């Protein structure tokens, strides 16, 4: 058999054997967000291209090399979301959510599209769970956002994540830092890649983000943003560290953090995990105090993070599990077919996950199927059972078999299943 089609390069099908793990992560994340007062926001999967060019940034790798951009039939340039933040801020402004007042807290679980070279932990369609808190300028919300992720990691049992923290300053201190970078790179810029040469003029901070190996070598010893913070940014950074300390959340100050997006101001952070190999960043985020204004809105300081679900799954403990069917109904003969279907429906109505054979297979094959599914119980309906108005319930673990009156079967079986869960 030669199949004609495969999933596009850099994408993957999430099959039932693993989709339950996705659900577990997502449910834990939703619950964490609920407890922290964050509410779900769902934005379109594509936006006007200009939104990302303006916010993610014209000089970034994402905008330069990775966007899935297309023209629709109406001649509009649209782009599949390469990250979540611009869409959330756009929606916040479009719906005038600042009028609600206070701090608006959002979370999302969404597919993200980046044209990257696929490898372990790097996809062209990946999925992020993330939060954005908009409206609060002070350092406490920075600490809360980081604390939320720590809470979530604890909840799902991910251990070994190390939080790196830095500040990349604001428009007041950025010019000084930019100048320091230009001075540092001036003697070597001619040896660097064409993108870096352009970045040297437009945005030398982005040189720190270049992946070309020779350029990576040339930037050893480059100036650090932390050494160029103005007094206000320094105070904010100290405030974040003090709040994290008070919450007993360990973090390492790491001035080498360069987030690959242009809108960041002040706090920048990443959680890295050795279990991920080369692509070791599990989560990344930061503050973006100027983004709302860049998009034409009123000032609205914001902070958030995004974390790749595929990467979280790489470090999530626990095995893959088969789909959970609790009861398998094995029916012998034509007459038992409809009673089996009815019993399955009654069991499901009583809250039990029940399945049965739809291929008219032999009783033996059906029993084998029940073993394969690792159901705890099998219900047998044969000629004798039909005559007696009963079913036979078999405990697949102990081998014990008991007759149960047909009309009592759904409740009795549901009670046994519930008893096992307690
Ligand atoms: P980012 O660092 O570009 O930030 O991505 C966030 C996370 O998404 C990464 O730490 C990684 O876990 C995952 N990720 C990124 N690219 C891929 C890929 N190709 N394959 C698999 N996983 C990937 C942002 O996107 C910002 N919007 C985060 C943010 C929210 N900042 C403020 N608010």
**Sequence of strands across the biggest β-sheet:** 1-5-6-11-10-9-7-8
Mean pLDDT: 94
State the shape.
Answer: elongated
Cofactors and ligands present? histidyl-adenosine monophosphate
Q: Structural class, from secondary structure content?
A: alpha+beta
> Rg from C-alpha positions?
28 Å
Report the end-to-end length measured between terminal Cα atoms.
48 Å
Largest sheet, in brief, is: 8 strands, mixed
The portion of residues forming beta strands comes to 15-25%
Parts with pLDDT < 50 across at least 5 consecutive residues: none
In total, the number of strands is 16
Helix-residue proportion: 25-40%
Number of helices: 15
Can you characterise this structure?
It is a single chain. Helices cover 38% and strands 20% of the residues. The protein has helices at 16-36, 49-55, 61-66, 85-94, 139-156, 174-185, 194-202, 213-218, 231-246, 291-294, 309-315, 337-349, 363-373, 383-388, 409-421; strands at residues 39-40, 46-48, 69-71, 77-80, 104-113, 125-134, 162-167, 252-253, 265-272, 281-287, 302-308, 327-331, 354-356, 377-381, 390-395, 401-405. An eight-stranded mixed beta sheet has the order 1-5-6-11-10-9-7-8, sandwiched between helices. β15 and β16 form a beta hairpin. The chain is elongated, with a radius of gyration of 28 Å. It starts with 15 loop residues before the first helix and ends with a helix. The mean pLDDT is 94. The structure holds histidyl-adenosine monophosphate. Histidyl-adenosine monophosphate is lined by residues 83-85, 114, 116, 121-123, 126, 128, 130, 132, 260, 281-286, 304-308, 310-311.
